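Same chain as my last thread, 243 residues:
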Amino acid sequence: MTFQWTAVAMFLYGEVGVILILCIPFISPSRWKKIFRFQLWSKISPYWNKAFLSIIVILIVLFLDAVREVRRYSVNPEIDKSAKLYSNTFDHLHMKLFRAQRNLYISGFSLFLWLVLRRVTNLIVQLATGMESCDSLKAQVENNNEAAKKYMEDNEHLKKVLDSNKVNDNEQKIKRDNEILKNEIEKGKEELQRMTEALSKSQAEIFALKKQSEGLTREYDRLIREHELLQNTIQEQDSKKDQ
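reply #2:
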């Protein structure tokens, strides 16, 4: 294996390791978001998009080169006819074809997992942001509930004062205060309703993000199994050739 394909294979193994680490269940999205906000990442972030696109271009070029090599060394009728006379040449071409197919799988999976890694990190950040907004909405709803309870207690207290004191001079003032409190309670209820709807919407978005993340995890597990199957097949072919 040449240096460039060794580097691509190591890059593929690194991608698999990073995605496995990101899928660890006991590390919450909020913790990952804090990790992504380290000072080191803030220094690297201006160059991240350029590096991401550059790696995609390199992997696409290597993938196309591997496709070209596979098509070049694919078995054709002329080679089958000459195989009877030049068996060593036929075996050499098969070896070249096997290496080209191996390079094709390595570059293809590296390109795919690179895109998956970018998508998974974005989903983790979005999920962490949604969880933070949900917590803030819960705190606002609790504050509004406490304010509404306080307004209701003040209203009941004013009603008792109104019932016990039948003073005509203060009756209109108490009524006005009562009306003001009622209006404030109505406003508090409307604000509470709005916050509840916003909380429900945020929870639905978080649930959708979780389902999408689980779908990506299942797809990634399937790809890993296929990758292991391909590696086992390649190893069996290597062992057969060595024999």
